[in-house]
Design brief:
Undecaprenyl pyrophosphate synthetase, 6-stranded parallel beta sheet, 8 helices, 42% helix, globular
Length: 256
């Protein structure tokens, strides 16, 4: 078996990897099982990928776990997902702390049931002093919700005299996003053979490298992550410049 780890340049790891964890339902249906069976097995992949990312030294890992649009799924699936989320977080807090992982949540948490909000707040508080991997769970998240929220809050700041419209720039605009404390992802992975963004980090993914795989989320493991990173490291990121400019000096994204 080829050793994927030896193909990875540790000096060029992405700081931030974002993943659309997709395909749980189809994975289960293919096996003649209920969709919730797929979500249940998806948790095992989350555990594996979080652990692998921490081991590798990835600084930020964002996992898209539940979108604003997912609230419109059948009630039985939504309820099952909320229960699974709460149970999982509850069970994992000790391991998160043991592995020095700091949990963050982005999304419209007010839409979550009260018991889920409480469990999430406890987990965030319990891991807040950890200094290793930042694990960002996107829950009840959609990028359009986030951007509209930013616009509303900018409106309030202007109205209250705390911000001049002419002073708005990419640095202070980002302060209104739920990702204000995190760098933009360099690599975005989507599983299950779907080639779309589905309302995920539309602003932040401007220059991310996109990686799509047919593997469904419940089958996605450390080796699949390593494959994605190797692929990422073999790409030339140009940020609108020419290939020659990139070779001449190491260039990163400008904020326009
Ligand atoms: C991803 O798997 C998990 C969530 C969106 C909650 P899906 O549930 O979307 O599975 P598919 O895409 O229907 O197979
Ligand atoms: C995106 O997957 C959201 C999550 C993985 C949480 P969906 O399955 O909801 O996306 P669509 O409907 O296929 O675009
Ligand atoms: Mg899906």
């Amino acid at each position: 078996m080829e050793d994927l780890l030896s193909k990875i340049n540790k000096q060029k790891l992405p700081k931030h990897i974002a993943i659309i964890m997709d395909g749980n339902g189809r994975w289960a249906e293919e096996k003649g099982e209920d969709r919730l069976f797929g979500h249940f097995h998806g948790v095992e992949s989350v555990r594996n990928i979080v652990e692998a990312s921490a081991e590798l030294g990835i600084q930020y890992l964002t996992l898209y776990a539940f979108s604003t649009e997912n609230w419109d799924r059948p009630q039985q699936e939504v309820d099952g997902l909320m229960t699974l989320l709460v149970d999982t977080i509850h069970k994992e807090i000790a391991d998160l702390n043991k592995n020095n992982i700091k949990l963050h949540i982005i999304g419209d948490i007010d839409m979550m049931p009260a018991f889920a909000q409480k469990e999430l707040q406890e987990a965030i508080a319990s891991t807040q002093n950890n200094t290793g991997l930042n694990l960002i769970m996107a829950l009840s998240y959609s990028s359009r919700w986030e951007l509209l929220n930013a616009v509303k809050n900018i409106g309030v700041a202007i109205k209250e005299g705390n911000l001049n419209p002419e002073d708005i720039n990419s640095a202070n605009f980002q302060q209104y996003l739920s990702t204000k404390n995190f760098p933009d992802p360099e690599l975005m992975i989507r599983t299950s053979g779907e080639y779309r963004i589905s309302n995920f980090l539309l602003y932040q993914l401007a220059y991310a490298e996109l990686y799509f795989t047919n593997t469904c989320w419940p089958d996605f493991r450390k080796n699949n992550l390593l494959e994605a990173i190797v692929d990422y490291q073999n790409r030339e990121r140009r940020f609108g410049k020419t290939g020659k400019q990139i070779i001449d000096k190491s260039i990163t994204a400008n904020n326009y």
